[in-house]
Amino acid sequence: MHQDKDWQLTVHISEQDRYTEAEAKLSTPNGTLTGRGVARRNPRDADVPSIGDELAVSRALSELSHGLLDAAAREISQIEHRKVRLTH
């Protein structure tokens, strides 16, 4: 059986002074998962906002991916009636 699905991913980035925060939200039929990431620029480093964006977003997406794996493991555990651990 072939079925196409669309999941909505949104990423919000907020910059203030030397700090960049990112929030990634994934909307699925089963609910919404959220990951957060932060980057802090060292005062001695050049002010390149795109680097802070990339670091904060990558950390938010990493947290989100771990949460998605945990959710899948919980669902499998309920079906299998045993503890399941999934890794990257």
TrEMBL record:
Residues 27-47 are annotated as: Disordered. It holds the Pfam family Rv2632c-like. SUPFAM superfamilies: Rv2632c-like (SSF143212). This is DUF1876 domain-containing protein. It comes from the Bacteria. Transmembrane segments: none annotated.
